[in-house]
Amino acid sequence: MLFYRAxxxxxxxxxxxxxxxxxxxxxxxxxxxxxRHESVVPTPVVDYxxxxxxxxxxxxxxxxxxxxxxxxxxxxxxxxxxxEQFTDAAGQPAYRVLRARRVNSTxxxxxxxxxxxxxxxxxxxxxxDNVRTIxxxxxxxxxKTWKKYAFTTYRPDSVRAFDATLExxxxxxxxxxKTYATTAIARDQQPVEANDGLLRRGGYLQVFAQGVxxxxxxxxxxxxxxxxxxxxxxxxxxxxxxxxxxxxxLIDSGKL
Length: 256
Hints:
Shape: globular
Distance between the termini: 93 Å
Number of strands: 15
Number of domains: 1
Largest sheet: 13 strands, antiparallel
Mean pLDDT: 84
Helix content: 10-25%
Order of helices and strands: HEEEEEEEEEEEEEEE
């Protein structure tokens, strides 16, 4: 009798152990599966600003000046050509970008200016006119802000921020619009005195497309009021009196 009870207890213990073991394995499998779904590797920042020696991007540019309520537009093309990869004074790799402009596709390119672009582990840096800026940061996070001029005392309060929604489609404006499936939009946050929403409006935004780079840049600064001869200010909410805007839209890219 005692032998029979001992055998039954051993059988029950063995069955319970197998059941718990199977449940534990199943739970571990579910946990691992959950980890696989939750572990998302952020898209490298370089994917939103690819750069390689011997490549170029061409933009259609619309430059508009306002004076006394009258707009004067100027249209032309701007090419950014990566002419050289080199090592800077700090021993870091860098790319020299030659900017050239022309009125239309039948004209010859005329050199305009030079930029230096650098890829770092968590940022894209650009140097223009001896001023270095942080164009993008990594990883991309909705509404994330950073100091655009962190490397200089120039405009120390200037802050750039991602939009609240990232990695969304974007369609460029113009006669031949193009839609990019995955983009990130970054905007420079303006001080109140430059963008009060009533007398002055200003801003700067860039749209970066994954695998392509900058596909749109827009900068504007308007004043929607004028001063009369007796010193009074007249507000014209829907009419720009003085200001400037510049829109650059990518129209071509490839190898030189």
